[in-house]
Specification:
alpha+beta, 4-stranded mixed sheet, binds FE2/S2 (inorganic) cluster, about 210 residues, binds iron/sulfur cluster, 4 helices
């Protein structure tokens, strides 16, 4: 067993997870895991979520110029400051569903912390699965994710939600925390290894 749970995004290959004790499937069922497991990220494995080597035939290209800026935007309110890195956002839109008064792409700026309560802002940051939204305290960023065990949760027809791991990748994103991030498994994200919501717009199906 490795000591530090981590995920290695292999170039043009699978996501190798090491030391992750909990892996749950699309239906929330617990999947058997080993100290080292390779997960599919080309979207074509016949043994999903596990890698069966299909990425070679599919010629998966995991590198390249990611779309969207790798930049931390700051939205300052009177009592709370929110940060956002678009490179990490999986566009699941929990933020707008929970508090569209504060997080709304139709308004400028799209995050307005003073349009709601501090509790509302914090509830949204805590619910953001990708860690794209964080709370800034000086130079420190917080995802408000309770310290949890290393976990990978396979989303139905969607990405991997990860908590409690570090990630090794050539395409890092500023401000990414070990607390939580969302990784592409359909093979189509323009921001690999992170999910950018393309699985939804392309109506990707895992089966
Ligand atoms: S990942 Fe976070 S910031 Fe992106 S849409 Fe979802 S809740 Fe909003
Ligand atoms: S799983 Fe590939 S873009 Fe979301």
């Amino acid at each position: 067993m490795t000591d530090e749970p981590k995920i290695i995004a292999r170039e043009n290959g699978p996501l190798v997870i090491k030391g992750v004790s909990s892996l749950t499937g699309e239906d929330g069922q617990s999947l058997e895991t080993k100290p080292v497991v390779a997960l599919c990220r080309c979207g074509l494995s016949k043994s999903k979520p596990f890698c069966d080597g299909s990425h070679k035939e599919a010629d998966l290209q995991s590198s390249g110029k990611p779309e969207g800026p790798d930049r931390i935007f700051r939205y300052e309110g009177a009592e709370v400051t929110v940060t956002f890195n678009p490179r990490l956002c999986s566009h699941a839109a929990e933020c707008g569903r929970i508090a569209s008064n504060i997080f709304n792409p139709k308004q400028k700026p799209w995050v307005q912390p003073d349009s709601g309560t501090v509790e509302e802002v914090k509830a949204v940051v805590a619910a953001c699965p990708s860690g794209a939204l964080q709370i800034a305290e000086g130079e420190d960023l917080h995802s408000l994710q309770p310290a949890g065990r290393a976990q990978v949760m396979v989303q139905r027809n969607g990405p991997y939600w990860v908590t409690g791991c570090t990630i090794e990748t050539d395409a890092g994103a500023k401000g990414v925390l070990r607390d939580k991030f969302v990784l592409c498994r359909c093979g189509m994200s323009g921001n690999k290894p992170y999910c950018d919501g393309t699985h939804r717009s392309q109506r990707w199906r895992s089966k």
